[in-house]
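Model it.
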Amino acid sequence: MALVCFVAGAVLSRRLEPNVQVEKVILPGGTPALKFIPAGSGPHPVALLAHGYSATKESLFWYAEALSAAGFICYSVDLPGHGESPRLYSFVEAAHTLGDVARAIGPVDVLVGHSMGGGAGGEAVREGLMRPKLVIAVGSGPRLGQQAPPLFLLVGRFDEFFKSAELRTRTDAQLVISPWSNHGLELFDPVLVNAAVTAACAVVGKASPSAFTSWRWRTAGIALTMLGALGLALALPVFPPRWMWARGVVVSALFIAEFVLAVNTCLDLKPRLQNMPLQIVAAAITLAVLVGTGKLRFPRWGFAAIAAALAIGSVIASGHLIANGTMLAFHILQLSQVFAPALFLGTIVGAIAAFRGTRFGGDVAMAVIVGCGFFQLGNAPRAALAPSKPHVFIRLDAKLCNACAGHYEFAPDNVFRTGARVAIWRQGDQMFLQATGRRVLQGVHEIFPESETNFFIKINGAELTFIKNEKGEVTSVNHHMTGLPDSEGKKLKD
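Modeled.
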């Protein structure tokens, strides 16, 4: 019966909406994509889907499937540095890739982007690289610029990166808030998926189909597969005493197979050989910790409590960490959100392995689950190294420094999403900068002159270029960072 549940669940978890076909394609420019093809003769409207940072083309599977069931031809692409893309990642490269794809597949009616994909898509629209009829941003708040197409924002109430209170202040977009999802679960939220389909159908003049329902079958399939794995684990015979530890390996393998078979439709779970050494080290460290805590008689359920506390703490601290706008904060948050569920699931699998076995066998199973959880999801993209150029700093005359001093205001864009205020002043022979706003460089920092108008910020590698009018007066400053679009801040007269 357990085997029947396991197989039936694996089949159900791959069930698609009726009359939708999916195939892998390579688009011009070498961009890998999943193509979702609806039933019936054309012409069909076209939707282009862009995933978030450290995700892959499989991430937006639910949205593409539902749109295809509504009659759209959908292309979900691997952005540069992600998945199977041969290119290297930068935000600007991602935006240009979307523009290249849009030109290759014909007029794009609807652009759907999650997180970074929404921002890169917004930049592609802002720069005129594509002109869709509608932009749907999931867990994102892109700025589309002047004469932009309609913008539809979809966000979960508990999104760590884009707070619903912040998005409510937007007057250039419609907003739908799901009451239960966070940034990651927005990808699998039926409320947001159905809202996206309704908006997309309206903009192309199609009747909205019945609600997206295949997720129910897939959820049932995941539950059945998990039940089958549990049954198979409990049905294992008692291992010989010298091989009791191997019970942990077999039980953990059953649950890993269940997860890969049942969830791989919407997640890229192919084995990554380059990560295996790190996963083995993580499993070995975890096993050593478990053996040590076992000698101290620390209960196994205590790790589940730690996992729950870590998950809650990461949600509470996410606003502060992300507001600082550093990649370190992002990776700390990402690590905790991968480690917490791996630890919780590992605790359960370890307890199952210890049934009719030994605590050490349970520790082995738990260590395997935690080790595999690391470095499997949320891998940083393959990025191009910033070009190294020598910076030669000079000493500027006080009059030239004073000309650059003042207050500058950056309008909201895809770098400073809520805008920013920057104060620049001279103190003796040095120049300093302080920015205020959400996700800006915090604190006071010295800026170093390379010419009369070009300055460099050592801490983050940003370059500032001051723009002068015909009278020689500084009117604005251009902010440039490798891989990001440039932003221009206007000098305030007061």
